[in-house]
Amino acid sequence: MILIEAENIHKTFAEGKGGQLLAIEDLSLQIRKNEFVSIVGPSGCGKSTFLLMVAGLERLSQGRLLIEGKPVNGPDHRRALVFQEYHLFPWKSVRGNVEFGPEMRGIARGERRKIGSHFIRLVGLEGFESRYPHELSGGMKQRVAIARALANDPTVLLMDEPFGALDALTRETLQVELLRIWQEAQCTVLFVTHSISEAVYLSDRVVMMSRRPGRIIADVRVDLPRPRTRGLLLSDEFRDYDRQLKKLVWNEFEGDVQ
Amino acid sequence: MRMDARKLMSPLGVLILWEIVARLNWVDPFFLPAPSAVWGELQKMVVSGEVFPHIGVSLARAVSGYLLAAVVGLALGLLIAWSTLVEQIFDPIIELIRPISTFALVPIMFVWFGIGDGSKVAIIFKACFFPIVINTIAGIKGVDAGLIRAARSLGAHGLQLWTKVLIPSALPMIVTGMRISTAMSMLAIVGVEMLASDTGIGFLVIDAQRVFATDRMFAGIVVISLMGFGLDRLARRIQGRMLSWHLETTLAGARG
Lengths: 258, 256
Fold this sequence. Notes:
The complex is a heterodimer of chains A (258) and B (256).
Chain A: E1 2-15, E2 19-32, E3 36-40, H1 47-55, E4 62-67, E5 70-71, E6 79-83, H2 94-98, H3 100-104, H4 109-122, H5 138-150, E7 156-160, H6 168-185, E8 188-193, H7 196-202, E9 205-209, E10 216-221, H8 236-252, H9 254-257
Parallel strand pairs in A: 3-8, 3-9, 6-7, 7-8
Antiparallel strand pairs in A: 1-2, 1-4, 4-5, 9-10
Helix pairs in contact in A: 4-5, 7-8
Chain B: H1 2-23, H2 35-48, H3 51-82, H4 84-97, H5 106-113, H6 117-141, H7 145-153, H8 159-195, H9 201-210, H10 214-242, H11 244-247, H12 251-254
Helix pairs in contact in B: 2-10, 3-4, 3-6, 3-8, 3-9, 5-6, 6-8, 8-9, 8-10, 9-10
């Protein structure tokens, strides 16, 4: 079943005096329910803009964007965002942050606490409920952000370079954790990243975008068995995909490398 | 304990030096009475109880003007941050009145509100209003766009966005404005009571000057200083209680 359907999307931004900047050019993409899709591409290729469009926080200039057959019309709690910079509410505790979504939807306190506890446990932050964001490490903050997003029981989890600010070790740990959480939470994930290896390791599909104006230049299905473990990173199949996609990038961005 | 002792060093040093200068008669005591003499005068004021009604009157005026400014300043600040239309209407008038010295408006206030408490509350209002309104606007406008995006994607909308995200996030700025204004209220009340009043702590000082009672003047100034200090302490306390999360993430918190 198709969950997200993007048809011939264009996005232009106003720039300077009457100038226009074409950020996304003719992007079409279909994403199935419960699929894990990564979008990779160079900085400024419009991949984050596309994510914000799906979130309903950025308008399209042209084209159609349907979720479950209905056009996107503003944000919706069933489409949850996770940012590289976390954007946790600094005046709220871990529990307060995780329960923010249910609180906005007017869910009663008792029920909210249940939801909060469930997702705090799911991301492995039991015992940290009353800590504040400034007391947490980057990896823990991102766990809170993921729990906060999932607490709204989203159909789509939109992740904008979520592990980009973390050290390599924390990053690997969270990748494994994310797969476990995804398996349990049962939702569609749209994952924006710079890292091809990360995209291959996590995804069912890797979509590659060109430099600005962003177009889709490759859409590769990753047929690696699940559940995926860290050991997979050392396997030949993984390396084949990794190599194949890196070659694509090098061909596309050859000019940049020199 | 050691930190408290260090904090006492400079005031104590000044007092000792001052006492020596006065005892050695380097300066005519009429111009500079010894701290011990000022202390004696202060004791007399307290023992006779005459200082307390003055303090009470000054505080009552300052607090009413301050509260009025806090309520109106906060409300208008939020409205201006919310609506460009409101901003375009009120911003010019705010920017024109703000730079006028509070005391330049005193004669007009006397004409409008008489020389009773009304004009004094109006003067305090003028002194306190601008830091609050301007910090409120800056606080709301300065809220991280990412935080707003996060909140909207989590389902916050309309009024919720204000009460649950914008205002809590702007609170450190808003509270700072309110704290600046507590100091402003003390500055203004003393000044206006010196100009036209027969009660209040400002009157006590100017009245002492009229009869050349310098030690009494100094004693009054000490009382003013203590009142200001006390109010600021109170404001800081409230700030600390409300914004523990903020203090711990900033330089102020890092330095203890």
